[in-house]
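Annex B, item 7. Sequence and structure tokens for protein A, then protein B.
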Amino acid sequence: MTDTLRDISAATAGRPEFEVEPTDAVSIGDVERPLTLAERIFSNETVQRLTILVVLIAVWQIYALWLNNSLLFPTFSETVRTFWHDIRSGVLINRTVTSLQTLAIGYAAGLVLAGIFTTFAVASGIGTRILSTLTAMFNPLPAIALLPLALIWFGLGTPSLVFVIIHSVLWAVSLNTLIGFRSVPETLRMSGRNVGLTGARYVGLILIPAAFPSILAGMKIGWAFGWRTLVAAELVFGVSSRSGGIGWYIFEARNDLDTATVFSGLLTVILIGLLVESVIFRAIEARTVNLWGMQR
């Protein structure tokens, strides 16, 4: 043992020592400095989104002017004029309100059914297998494919639209909610049980907050599916509660070869989507998962 230590000391004794001079920090640059006004403006998320929209609008306008065929592709300015004219006349507002009322009924019913299905799935193993099987069967099925059956069962009107919207919302929300509940850490589950939480209080105070990012993602997906399904269904048969919705507005304009009005309807669909995503869901997200520190 002594010989081994002596050999190690002899091997390391001849190793040359070296020193490293500290690097001058001035050459590195500013470690911390205040941002300029331009950097603060362009680092703002709202400004970035508006910049993207302005660029897309500019490309739209330039391409339409270059094409010079309003029947195929109207300019952005022409679309805005048509959009504003139909807003002032009340036509576009009435059609949009009709669609949103139908969507609200179908979306709310889909959320309620998704909550019932997921609660049953969380409560028992057989419920989980039933929901997994149903989502595997019906989630890939396009809601618009059920429209002929909806017309036979419920007739021409709001009930048929609500039926296909529920199908669009139900499975997406149920699947994401179930995945969220499954991903709740066992530590949180045990903590809830240790403090005596059971039943609805256990689900409401432990499972739902922990799984809410997945639940919110499912609500966003369900909203998008329901909105585009409604527009597509209205494009097929359209009339609901004595007046057509935004999809029927687009369909009528297409029959009249009024491309600017078609673009005006599409612009309305896009604006509503941006409004719901950027205002409603962003507010929910800020007051829940961001406030709880569950995501950045």
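Protein B:
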Amino acid sequence: MTATLVDSHCHLDRLDLGRHEGSLDHALAAAQEAGVGHFLCVSIDADNLHTVCELAQHYPQVSCSVGIHPNEHDGEELGVEQLVAFAQPDYVVAIGETGLDYFRSEGDLEWQRDRFRRHIAAAREIGKPLIIHMREATEDTLRILGEENARDVGGVMHCFVDSWDTAQAAMDMNFAISFSGIVTFKSATELQDVARRVPLDRMLVETDSPYLAPVPFRGKSNEPAWVRYVAEFIARLRGMEFEELARITTENYFRMFGEKK
């Protein structure tokens, strides 16, 4: 099958490889067979940052990001200069994932907001887009993106699950909207409405694997090949051909992240 899709957000270093003879090579080959030709492997902490960079250097079809997830608080903290230094190579295409998550963390979360601001500053300094994680923190996330002039670099609202008004506000600040397997869930009616309405040139698709497997695999460990199910579902929602949605979201990815096909 011709590779037409990009998994714009996955964690290849965390995949359950049991279905693929314990080999990432086999998992990527399965994704290729499903029509997925490129992968953005996203960093979540200072330790796995090195791992995702090594994967991007080893596999030509893999790019990576550098950043610390908002819920990570036990490992090394990275300042603006460190983030910029790690983000210098061409295979590093974004800063993140970063943002705010008030669902998993409790108490005074000013440390999350400070980290978020540092990531935005690093993205602006190096001129690479942001990958934003936002959970139960919509107001503060959008406020900080505005205060820190994040529109200068833009990026993607990863695994978007919010309202149409929030999607519009994010797009007004130069951010694309990325849909994960959650959009395929029967209960996700509001999100499905957003997926119908987002302009096609502002849309990406992702797995967030090994998390959030789409229907019909919900509850299983996710994998990059299954981004096809996300794209097929959205194409049906919008009454368009899958091949056309795949082509557009792939073009969007390479344009937004400044990569060459």
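Comment on protein B: The two ends are 17 Å apart (CA to CA).
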